[in-house]
Automatic annotation (TrEMBL):
Residue ranges of domain Exocyst complex subunit EXOC6/Sec15 C-terminal in the record: 400-743
Family, similarity comment: Belongs to the SEC15 family.
Gene3D superfamilies hit by this protein: Dsl1p vesicle tethering complex, Tip20p subunit, domain D (1.20.58.670), Exocyst complex subunit Sec15 C-terminal domain, N-terminal subdomain (1.10.357.30)
Region (Disordered): 752-779
Name this polypeptide is given: Exocyst complex component SEC15
Cellular component terms per the entry's GO annotation: exocyst; membrane
Organism (species): Lentinula detonsa
GO process terms (BP): Golgi to plasma membrane transport; intracellular protein transport; vesicle tethering involved in exocytosis
Record keyword Transport present: yes
Ranges of residues in domain Exocyst complex component EXOC6/Sec15 N-terminal: 56-223
Composition skew (Basic and acidic residues), residue ranges: 752-769
Function of the protein: Component of the exocyst complex involved in the docking of exocytic vesicles with fusion sites on the plasma membrane.
């Protein structure tokens, strides 16, 4: 530092200063001593007291010299000057005293000022330190406030803001605070704060997962209800348009024509699912570069939740709730997959889906293992179909569920067969075999809507006046009603099933055939064996006829109702079974008639070796013909062809009985008169058949007349010629002819007259000749 330049006081400056205080101003009557203060302060500040005194002394000396010079020139002036000088001196002395006093005072004041200055400097230094400390503390407080707000943001769920705040702290510009231990400690605590944010957002997501699990059932319920509304709307439209009959909900046609109504199952008036916790968690984990960890944790949590959906064992009553929860579960998964980018992979969701579907099928199968009610299977199918239709997409494969439904369907069909087979058995056995009696138009409409009959018969029944007795009995009506119920229940199960349609149609055909053949036809056949009432047998015949027609109409109905779009007409094998049943029924009628005819034949009293011919038929034939015509015409209310067949059967049976008389083993011998009497009976019967308008029944006696004609016309030798046997005597059976000849020969052997014995020997030889035609064949 350069030395301070010392101040030099000149005479002019001293004069000027003295002039200021009026010490040199003769015109002034007062001394302006106050002006000494600044002068003395200036001298004191400059530490020039000695220099100033020397200057003043020099001034005094110069003034004294000036005074002496002046005095020498003018004594009076000198005296006056001396006097003035003394005055000045006195003033000067006083001024010295004042200056000394002021100097001491200034020195004292200066020391105080120095102390105060030093204290002030120290205070300023302290203040500067305090300011710096305050600035640092304020910076710390700002950082701590940020850290505090991070905690508040975590509690408020503002995780991203909290994470950004931590990044702001880490990226603060370099200041004096950056070098402090506090700041370094703060930076070291940032990872733990990030962990807190991570834990908090994870806890938030876990809580969200819990709420999602609680709401999954409601989500699924709303989705299933929406799908049910959509299904009903499509079914109504499909019923109006035959071209859409083969299309189901979810098919390409339905998707094209579906008038979609905006309904978001995740956000509606009843429910709103907020995915913010999940999105926030994904965002935070992505920022923390820990997304893989979140993905594994989320997959594990959802896997656990999917495992908890299905109770084991599964009560069938809770299946609907379970399918609702599963639907809600995978609706959420679909939304997450579609809205979170690469957070979820399709394969992860597919694994969850496959696991749930596998456990669901096992649980349902286990629950139905001992179930015998077909309606339970139908309810299960309805739950599964609604569930499948709701979730069916390219992501969720429902092939295994459809296959499982087909398995359930096979069991359902078996139970349905069992239920309806018992009902059909009961219907047939409990029927009174009487025509249905209709009194009102409503009853008639109800019946006609159920039964399958030809259009011509339907028109006749509709036009007939009421009340009326229908041709069929309760068996036909109730069986048709149950067949319709069976078909309805059958197709109710496959409604919505998109696979194996042809198999289902084939299974329906097979089931219906089984029911028609084994239960209806079988029961009718069994009842035939126990029925002897001709009117009931006639009703069974009529029912069988209508069942034949019903099979044809049923085939047409099934073809129209079939679920498959390809293939030919559905054929039922039961039609041929009803043909056989009809044949058995007519045969049973014949058998019952023949049984009654046996009673009449038991009353017959033939003399097989009469001495003469009778003039008229045997008396029992009158009663036989009367009974036959009365019963067949009045009790057999069946088609004329079957009535005629019954008559023909009776005629053939009578002819067979007559032939048994002639050729059977029960009668050892007879003569020509007995044969003639039997021919008289045949004439009587042929006459009666002609009387009732059935002359063709006489053909039943062709064999009898041809056989006896050979005997009476002595044409045995002609019969032995092969050409004649095949043309003229085709109706004659050689064994019966041989038996008749043997009986005549036996009678001849008992005669005493020669002619008789010779005739008997002739018959024996003829019998032997006829027997030799077919050696090895006995009677």
């Amino acid at each position: 530092m350069p030395p301070r330049k010392r101040t030099v006081f000149t005479q002019e400056s001293i004069d000027q200063q003295l002039q200021q205080i009026h010490l040199l101003d003769q015109s002034s009557s007062s001394e302006n001593l106050e002006q000494l203060g600044p002068i003395i302060k200036q001298i004191h500040t400059g530490r020039q007291q000695d220099a100033f005194l020397r200057s003043v002394q020099a001034l005094v000396d110069s003034k004294e010299a000036e005074i002496e010079r002046i005095c020498g020139e003018n004594y009076q002036d000198f005296i006056s000057s001396v006097s003035t000088l003394f005055t000045v001196k006195s003033y000067t002395d006083k001024m010295k005293e004042n200056i000394s006093s002021l100097d001491a005072s200034v020195s004292q004041l200066g020391r105080g000022l120095v102390e105060k200055k030093r204290a002030l400097l120290q205070t300023k230094k302290t203040a500067a330190n305090l300011d710096e400390a305050i600035d640092n503390l304020q910076a710390c407080l700002r950082v701590l406030d940020v850290v505090h707000r991070v905690g508040e943001m975590i509690r408020e769920g503002k995780y991203w803001s909290a994470l950004r705040s931590l990044e702001d702290i880490q990226n603060l510009p370099q200041t004096s605070l950056s070098q402090t231990p506090f700041y370094r400690h703060l930076l070291s605590s940032l990872p733990s704060l990030r962990v807190q944010i991570k834990d908090a957002v994870t806890a938030s997501m876990k809580e969200w997962l819990l709420k999602i699990r609680e709401n999954s059932g409601e989500i699924g319920r709303l989705a299933l209800e929406a799908m049910e509304i959509r299904t009903r709307r499509w079914r109504s439209r499909r019923d109006k348009d035959p071209l859409l009959r083969m299309s189901r909900v979810g098919s390409a046609v339905e998707l094209v024509t579906y008038e979609k109504t905006e309904f978001n199952v995740l956000d509606n008036d009843k429910l709103s699912v907020d995915f913010k916790p999940l999105y926030q968690c994904i965002h935070i984990y992505t920022a923390l570069d820990s997304l893989d960890e979140l993905q594994r944790s989320y997959q594990a949590d959802r896997k656990i939740q999917s495992d908890l959906i299905l109770p084991m064992p599964l009560p069938l009553g809770s299946l609907s709730a379970v399918t609702q929860e599963i639907s809600g579960y995978f609706i959420v998964e679909t939304h997450v997959l579609e809205t979170t980018g690469t957070f979820r992979s399709e394969r992860e969701v597919e694994e969850l889906w496959e696991g749930v579907v596998s456990r669901l099928t096992v649980a349902v199968q286990s629950a139905l293992r001992t179930e015998t009610d077909a309606d339970s299977f139908l309810r299960v199918k309805e739950c599964l179909i609604g569930f499948i239709t709701t979730l069916e997409s390219s992501l969720y494969s429902t092939t295994s569920l459809h296959s499982f439904i087909i398995v359930l369907f096979e069991k359902y069909a078996q139970l349905l067969d069992k239920r309806f087979s018992k009902r059909f058995d009961d219907i047939v056995w409990q029927d009174d075999c009487q025509p249905m009696y209709i009194q009102s138009q409503q009853e008639l409409k109800t019946v006609l809507d159920v039964v399958w009959i030809g259009d011509e018969e339907r028109a006749e029944v509709t036009k007939a006046p009421l009340p009326q007795s229908l041709l069929w009995s309760q068996t036909f009506y109730l069986c048709c009603e149950d067949i319709r119920g069976f078909i309805q229940k059958f197709y109710a199960f496959v409604e919505g099933v998109s696979q194996h349609h042809r198999n289902i149609d084939d299974l329906l055909s097979k089931s219906l055939d089984d029911l028609l053949i084994h239960n209806i036809c079988g029961s009718i056949t069994k009842r035939l064996a126990e029925t002897t009432n001709l009117s009931q047998l006639a009703q069974i015949v009529t029912n069988a006829e209508h069942f034949q027609v019903a099979c044809t109409e049923l085939e047409r109905s099934l073809t129209n109702l079939r679920t498959a779009q390809r293939g030919g007409t559905i054929r039922l094998k039961a039609s041929s079974s009803f043909d056989e049943t009809l044949t058995r029924s007519v045969s049973r009628i014949k058998s019952v008639i023949n049984s009654k005819l046996d009673d009449f034949f038991e009353l017959s009293e033939y003399n097989w070796v009469p001495t003469s011919k009778e003039d008229g038929p045997n008396m029992y034939l009158y009663e036989l013909v009367n009974w036959l015509t009365t019963v067949v015409d009045s009790q057999l209310l069946i088609a004329p062809s079957y009535i005629d067949e019954a008559y023909m059967g009776a005629a053939e049976y009578i002819a067979e009985c007559f032939m048994d008389f002639l050729t059977g083993r029960s009668i050892a011998m007879m003569n020509e008169n007995a044969i003639s009497n039997l021919l008289i009976d045949c004439d009587f019967l042929e006459t009666e058949f002609g009387r009732i308008g059935r002359p063709h029944l006489s053909s039943a006696f062709n064999e009898l007349r041809a056989t006896t004609g050979i005997v009476f016309s002595d044409k045995v030798q002609d019969y032995l010629i092969p050409a004649n046997r095949q043309s003229t005597y085709a109706a004659v059976k050689h064994k019966r002819l041989q038996a008749l000849l043997e009986k005549l020969a036996q009678y001849g052997s008992t005669r005493r007259d020669t002619a008789g014995r010779q005739l008997g020997e002739k018959r024996r030889k003829e019998a032997d000749a006829v027997g030799r035609l077919f050696p090895g064949q006995g009677r």
